[in-house]
Amino acid sequence: MRITPIILAAGQGIRMKSDLPKALHPLLGQPLVWYVVRTLEQVTGVKPVVVVGYGADKVKQVLADSVHYVYQERRLGTGHAVMQTAKLLNGQTDYVLVSNADMPLIMVDTVNQLVEAQLQHGGPLTILTHIMDDPHGFARLIRDAEGNLLAIVEQQDCTPDQLQICEGSTGVYCIKTDWLWPALERIPPSAQEQRDLIDLVGIAITDHMKVQTVKTMDPAQVIDINTRVHLSKAIAHMRERINRQWMLDSVTIVDPQTTYIEAGVTLGRDTIILPNTYLQGNTRIGANCTIGPNTYIRDTQVGDRCEIFASVLEGAVVEDDVEIGPFARLRKGAHLADGVHMGNFGEVKNSYLGPGTKMGHFSYLGDATLDGNVNIGAGTITCNYDGKKKYPTKIGQNAFIGSDTMLVAPVKIGQGAHTGAGSVVTKDVPSNTLAVGMPARQIKKIED
Known about the structure:
Elements: E1 3-9, E2 26-27, E3 30-31, H1 32-44, E4 49-52, H2 56-63, E5 68-71, H3 78-83, H4 86-89, E6 95-100, H5 108-121, E7 125-131, E8 140-143, E9 149-153, H6 160-163, E10 167-176, H7 177-186, H8 199-206, E11 211-216, H9 228-248, E12 252-253, E13 259-261, E14 266-267, E15 272-273, E16 277-280, E17 284-285, E18 290-291, E19 295-298, E20 301-302, E21 307-308, E22 312-314, E23 317-318, E24 323-324, E25 329-330, E26 335-336, E27 341-342, E28 347-349, E29 352-353, E30 358-359, E31 364-366, E32 368-370, E33 375-376, E34 381-383, E35 393-395, E36 400-401, E37 406-408, E38 411-413, E39 418-419, E40 424-425, E41 433-436, E42 441-445
Parallel strand pairs: 1-4, 1-6, 4-5, 7-11, 12-15, 13-16, 14-17, 15-18, 16-19, 17-20, 18-21, 19-22, 20-23, 21-24, 22-25, 23-26, 24-27, 25-28, 26-29, 27-30, 28-31, 29-32, 30-33, 32-35, 33-36, 34-37, 35-38, 36-39, 37-40, 39-41
Antiparallel strand pairs: 2-3, 6-10, 7-10, 8-9, 41-42
């Protein structure tokens, strides 16, 4: 049996009060629709069809070729949206699995239960419902005394008694396609020409066909994100879910309430995450590391046994056994090799620090290449920009750069060379040579 996911992502999301399509609002590093795509694809093993409309080009830019696209020119309801997929899917699939793009918290196990129920009962469709204390805004399920589904009524059409019902429709369906395509044509349009999937229930019941339901008791999974208040609730639930999973997978999170780990992050065994730490983007943290507190890391690769304290790392590479901080910053292109120590209030941009290098506090290295075991004294600055271009600085193995040295690029410091404190180096310094002064002058050779 082929089951094809259909994800409805054509809406603007007017109540979000945003120029960004609702499906693209970010939730812990990924757009809302990304979570739905990933979940439904895991369940079916089939590339989803995404119905786009408002901001279609933006949605396509984000999802690229990970899905198929169908365009809904006029947004005339969920039933109308699914009708747009008929040309692509008619005769190509046995069932469709329909969900809105703004339900990022729905889980694979729940969707699997929905699909299994549909495959077993043989009726035309199965609906995912939920039980919650406050079903405000959701359509209510009306059942008879034996529990058989009689109708689904939108909240605005409910009687006072029906409003007391706590079972609501989530808008997630599994539907047989040989019944679906003709049934969609039978949905009576509203005065505003709207056709909604919810009306399929009435059609099935009129035809004396059984509609199956699957209930979820977890209201978090079916949070319908229509406002930024709803979005904040979804973020809180997803953050709790991600943190819990990492703690079960051998990571210590000292204070989950102040730890933010995005969906694309990976963490190694026995790593410790201290409070107020943000791990974002394509970040990879190795094993036995200590990260934080008060640390922000984005799109950065960190090796094993590293300690990063109260620092900011963006687009960097950090190898094994590295110590950073407090109050250090690694910018894009920074690469710290094994055993590097980077002290407080240091900054590195587009530079390589070789193994065993020690970079003291209050220093800046930009567009620099350092071989191994270099000592960077406090206050060292690479003057890499002349107002028009940026130039490189190269420092050889075992060099010693004295405190407050200014390295005016382009410049090369040879292997084993030294600079005196406060030197302004404007010319290359040969290997094993001491240079001091403003500008720096070579004053003697240094014995190995």
